[in-house]
Amino acid sequence: MAKREVPSGVSVAVRVRPGAGRTRVGGTYAGPHGAALIVAVGAPAVDGRATEAVRRALAGALGVRAADVTLRVGATSRDKVFTVAAPASEIETRLDRLLNA
């Protein structure tokens, strides 16, 4: 379930890699809960800093405002689900490209 359309936009499953050398959005993680988009960020997994960095990186990669990306599940986990408040038709191509990177 890397992505699916929901009433408020698109739900995106993410696998976070905190403490990375650089921010990178792309690739697919085949985890126990299904597929997820990999997002690596330099921020440490302390006090929500990595989650906020992921939210901003995901928004930038999808071409939407950071305010349009909301964490739904996984505040303290590496496996998170974000909702992107944008029509699926606007971000689906970008998201598919990122998942296949």
Automatic annotation (TrEMBL):
Any one of the GO CC terms: cytoplasm
InterPro entries membership: DUF167, YggU-like_sf
Entry's transmembrane regions: none
Pfam entry (one): DUF167
SUPFAM superfamilies: YggU-like
Family: Belongs to the UPF0235 family.
PANTHER family, A to Z: UPF0235 PROTEIN C15ORF40
Name assigned to this protein: UPF0235 protein Asi03nite_33070
